[in-house]
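STRUCTURE:
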């Protein structure tokens, strides 16, 4: 076999591996939605029949699903008893939504992303966008659940305290605008942590706001958390102590107008907490797992969503700190600091 054909063979195997991952993602969504991972985690080892019984599913389908998980290295099988186990290290990734490493929820968004393929083909030809509202509601809940574990573990204990005097203001009854709040996970986290604060969540997706209001009701927080449909450049209110953007600015068609509106809506001593993807154009070549995921998401979701708003900028999700800082400065902000970070997120403190 020539060196060339060896290289072609290796690349072919890499692409087949990616194809397997693309299809396996659907099996992960099924496992998440049907409670299969959670049942294995809490009651395993289980046979296919036992797992089907505990989850109200069909044994033959569950057997096939287990084979897919086994071939992926997600579960282990004990040949003597034909029982399956979710290894302890995998529980935090696939079955425990409270763990910082939980990732299974992301795969439930694939339904929404894959369904836009025809729209994307057209967008790539015409240069038009694919708006967030053109996606199934699974995109709101799936992406929300992907970012939620990081927010649960980092927002209140790490990120907010790393900002100048913000936690003191909120404890004393400050006001917060969470812009692009989606289904309101971050909004509710802040409200829970600071019972004296007044917290507003804004998003231009009516579907997301509807889910957010329901979640607030269920959490018993609807008396002091208000969710409204509004865009980043026209949300109501002024004198906010804190305005938050969680992985939202890069999806906006006119990020400068959004930043200008933040500047106008903040108290003179207020803070804009800008949380963005911790990737930059330099990461296009790094091929880390996070970079590869972000680049792909940008091509099929982030960029088309921004283009659909017909603004002057369409950033994509890996524009990087330099681009975000330039936008903030153009909007009138004079102070910029990288306050915190995780492998996935960068947290910027932006002040007038």
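SEQUENCE:
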């Amino acid at each position: 076999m020539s060196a060339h054909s060896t290289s072609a063979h290796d690349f072919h195997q890499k692409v087949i591996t990616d194809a397997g991952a693309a299809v396996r993602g659907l099996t992960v969504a099924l496992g998440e939605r049907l409670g299969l991972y959670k049942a294995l985690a809490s009651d395993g080892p289980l046979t296919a029949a036992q797992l089907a019984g505990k989850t109200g599913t069909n044994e033959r389908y569950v057997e096939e699903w287990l084979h897919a998980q086994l071939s992926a290295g997600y579960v282990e099988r004990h040949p003597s008893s034909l029982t399956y186990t979710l290894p302890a290290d995998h529980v935090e990734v696939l079955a425990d939504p409270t763990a910082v490493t939980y990732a299974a929820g992301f795969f439930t968004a694939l339904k929404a992303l894959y369904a836009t393929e025809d729209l994307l083909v057209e967008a790539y030809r015409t240069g038009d966008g694919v708006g967030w509202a053109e996606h199934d509601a699974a995109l709101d809940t799936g992406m929300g659940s992907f970012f939620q574990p990081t927010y649960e573990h980092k927002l209140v204990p790490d990120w907010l305290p790393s900002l100048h005097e913000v936690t003191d203001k909120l404890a004393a009854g400050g006001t917060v605008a969470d812009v692009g709040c989606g289904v309101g996970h971050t909004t509710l986290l802040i409200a829970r942590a600071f019972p004296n604060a007044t917290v507003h969540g804004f998003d231009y997706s009516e579907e997301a706001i509807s889910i957010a209001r329901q979640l607030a009701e269920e959490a018993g927080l609807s008396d002091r958390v208000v969710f409204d449909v509004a865009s980043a450049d026209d949300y109501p209110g002024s004198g906010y102590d804190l305005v938050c953007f969680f992985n939202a600015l890069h999806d906006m068609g006119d990020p400068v107008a959004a930043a200008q509106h933040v500047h106008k809506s903040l108290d003179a001593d207020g803070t804009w907490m800008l949380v963005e993807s911790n990737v930059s154009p330099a990461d296009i070549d790094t091929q880390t797992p996070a970079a590869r995921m972000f680049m792909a998401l940008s091509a099929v979701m982030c960029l088309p969503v921004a283009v659909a708003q017909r603004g002057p900028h369409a950033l994509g999700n890996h524009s990087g700190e330099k681009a975000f800082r330039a936008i903030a400065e153009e909007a009138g902000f004079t102070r910029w600091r990288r306050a915190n970070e995780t492998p996935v997120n960068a947290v910027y403190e932006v002040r007038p």
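REMARK: The first strand starts at residue 76 and ends at 78.
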